[in-house]
Amino acid sequence: MARPVTLFTGQWADLPLEELAKKTSAWGYDGLELACWGDHFDVDAALASDTYCKEKKEMLKEYGLKVWAISTHLVGQAVCDNIDERHKAILSPDIWGEGDPEKVRKRAAKMMIKTAQAAKKLGVKVVCGFTGSSIWHLLYSFPPAAPGMIEAGYEDFAKRWLPILDEFKAAGVKFALEVHPTEIAFDIASAQRALKAIKNHKSFGFNYDPSHLGYQGVDYVKFIRTFSDRIFHAHMKDAWWGHGDGTVGVFGGHTDFADPRRFWDFRSIGHGDINFEEIIVALNDIGYQGPLSIEWEDSRMDREHGAEEACAFIKAADFKPSQLAFDAQFDK
């Protein structure tokens, strides 16, 4: 096995962490990517207590598990977003407050800084998450969006995130954006533009996730090679596309996941169209040695069956790169 295989706990926040740890250990996982919601990882508690982080790691150790990253997608989303009632459902009352959009964004930014500090205290080097975007609603340009409107969105992103990233740097922690629709970066071109906006800040990189690229038509292997020095973390997640009945396109048609009319959907690993062999080769080529973290989503499958099967699939798919040329022994 070349890399540890972990489970992202975000979709499992209904389970107490110890119960989930017991299950994932039995399924063969090496660790957990802890979500900063549910009881999985509490940033404020970590900073307020001298024992919180130690107790978390000791509990995981009892089940043979480690933690290499924590994730704060929900709070990160609020840093740049145009805030509305949807955000109230994903934010804590402390972040939401009275719901004033700019105050929500500022409180979210402060929490991101605290998350970097909590990650340092936990002993992890990567925080995964979202950035939000003030310009996602301008994706399809009608009424036409003037070029300055898009540029203003990247300037807003830089203004809000550079102070956060400076604090990440001070903590010795990196922020890994999961490139994803609704974020400031959702494909290769927008990821390049995001990096340019923050002057290639060394603490900003990517949580690679092929599932959000494939159905868009983005070359998800090219993404790895394009950002070889910015892949700080990797989600293993599958999707399929082109399986609908032609009723619903790539934008989703306001349908729910698992609607058989949909053009694309998330699938349990090995049941979709992502080529994990090519991904492993590319990750080997760039020297990525972080965890392969399974983000399990499939509305058609029992999640415990899927999570166990996905772990076995990725462990079988992963391999160490060669340390010598295959024909180096011909003259021996």
Based on CA inertia axes, which overall geometry fits? globular
Q: Please report the total strand number as a whole number.
A: 10
Strand content range: 5-15%
Largest sheet: 8 strands, parallel, barrel
Mean pLDDT: 96
Strand pairing plus helix content: what structural class?
Answer: alpha/beta
Runs in which pLDDT lies below 50 for 5 or more consecutive residues are none
**Tally of helical segments:** 13
Order of helices and strands: EHEHHEHHHHEHEHEHHEEEHEH
Distance between the termini: 29 Å
What is the rounded Rg? 20 Å
Structure explained in plain terms:
The protein has 332 residues and is α/β, with parallel strands linked by helices. It is 42% helix and 13% strand. The strands form 2 sheets. An 8-stranded parallel barrel has the order 1-2-3-4-5-6-7-10, surrounded by 5 helices. A two-stranded antiparallel ribbon has the order 8-9. α1 links the parallel β1 and β2. α4 packs antiparallel against α7 and α7 packs parallel to α8. The protein is globular. The two termini are 29 Å apart.
Short description:
The protein has 332 residues and is α/β, with parallel strands linked by helices. Helices cover 42% and strands 13% of the residues.
Short descriptors:
eight-stranded parallel barrel, globular, two-stranded antiparallel sheet, alpha/beta, 13 helices, 332 residues
